[in-house]
């Protein structure tokens, strides 16, 4: 095993399979995520995208396969073990505390930042935490919710709740951020703003980001690599320009019209 952190994958999922009774939701999926990557995951409804996220964040235990986080085998471990290694995620339906002010939701996430990724232990605690992730206020400013800080989370708009959930994930000071349809239900303008925020988070916070989204044309413009799932299998894993020309991807998901639009 290499000890070089620059060439070692942050997450290496090997032959991950998840079965629910007779249904194979994720079928022997291999995926490697390197430090600093911004990767999209796309595929039709029911393709296994969320189940794959659940598996790689420890939310569900894969039926088989291995999950290596920076060379460490976390297969079968509980979600907090994945969080302790620097994984954070959002859910399709935002999980915020509606009665609590927006600021307190972020403060809650910060409580879990005590279990930092190794990097922070090695280099000394606060010194290596990016400024933008130090306090609830700095995180709210980063995600653009400073003006809403004192409102109950239930009182902000659904798109603001999605931002808040990202803020809560960031508060744990992750190294790998898994985003599950954070642009669902947003207007076209909001989707584009979300994509730009995601890029900024990756660029400014030294993060690896994996982003599941159905807003394919926007996603393809912003990510460097795309994984396509179909019926639980990985059918493509390549740069966007190659994925939109992939015959199986066009047939299973994009269709000719969307493939042309995305290619353009
Ligand atoms: N807890 C569960 N028990 C049984 N079947 C499940 C469970 N979770 C997911 N499935 C099934 O596994 C398959 C994959 O579902 P999954 O939600 O991972 O797909 P997806 O690609 O995220 O879909 P979408 O784009 O609609 O969110 C589907 O057939 C779904 O019905």
Automatic annotation (TrEMBL):
<keyword id="KW-0547">Nucleotide-binding</keyword>
<dbReference type="InterPro" id="IPR032823">
    <property type="entry name" value="BCA_ABC_TP_C"/>
</dbReference>
<dbReference type="InterPro" id="IPR003439">
    <property type="entry name" value="ABC_transporter-like_ATP-bd"/>
</dbReference>
<dbReference type="InterPro" id="IPR003593">
    <property type="entry name" value="AAA+_ATPase"/>
</dbReference>
<dbReference type="InterPro" id="IPR051120">
    <property type="entry name" value="ABC_AA/LPS_Transport"/>
</dbReference>
<keyword id="KW-0472">Membrane</keyword>
<dbReference type="Pfam" id="PF00005">
    <property type="entry name" value="ABC_tran"/>
</dbReference>
<keyword id="KW-0067">ATP-binding</keyword>
<dbReference type="GO" id="GO:0005524">
    <property type="term" value="F:ATP binding"/>
</dbReference>
<keyword id="KW-1003">Cell membrane</keyword>
<feature type="domain" description="ABC transporter">
    <location>
        <begin position="11"/>
        <end position="256"/>
    </location>
</feature>
<keyword id="KW-0813">Transport</keyword>
<dbReference type="InterPro" id="IPR027417">
    <property type="entry name" value="P-loop_NTPase"/>
</dbReference>
<dbReference type="Pfam" id="PF12399">
    <property type="entry name" value="BCA_ABC_TP_C"/>
</dbReference>
<protein>
    <submittedName>
        <fullName>ABC transporter ATP-binding protein</fullName>
    </submittedName>
</protein>
């Amino acid at each position: 095993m290499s000890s070089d952190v620059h060439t070692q994958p942050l997450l290496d999922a090997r032959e991950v399979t998840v079965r629910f009774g007779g249904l194979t939701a994720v079928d022997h999926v291999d995926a490697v995520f390197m430090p600093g990557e911004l990767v999209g995951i796309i595929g039709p409804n029911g393709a296994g995208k969320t189940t794959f996220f659940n598996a790689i964040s420890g939310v569900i235990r894969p039926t088989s396969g291995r999950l290596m986080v920076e060379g460490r085998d976390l297969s079968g471990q509980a979600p907090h073990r994945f969080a302790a290694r620097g994984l954070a995620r959002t859910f399709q339906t935002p999980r915020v505390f509606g009665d609590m002010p927006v600021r307190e939701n972020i403060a809650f996430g910060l409580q879990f930042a005590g279990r930092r990724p190794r990097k922070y232990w090695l280099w000394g605690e606060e010194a290596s935490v990016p400024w933008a992730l130090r306090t609830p206020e700095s995180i709210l400013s980063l995600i653009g919710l400073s003006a809403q800080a004192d409102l109950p989370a239930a009182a902000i708009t659904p798109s603001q709740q999605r931002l808040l959930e990202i803020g809560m994930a960031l508060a744990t000071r992750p190294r790998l951020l898994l985003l599950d349809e954070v642009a669902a239900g947003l207007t076209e303008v909001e989707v584009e703003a979300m994509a730009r925020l995601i890029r900024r988070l990756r660029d400014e916070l030294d993060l690896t980001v994996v982003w599941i989204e159905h807003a394919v044309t926007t996603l393809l413009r912003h990510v460097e690599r795309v994984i396509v799932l179909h019926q639980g299998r990985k059918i493509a894993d390549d740069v966007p320009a190659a994925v939109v020309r992939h015959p199986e991807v066009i047939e299973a998901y994009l269709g000719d019209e969307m493939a042309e639009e995305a290619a353009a």
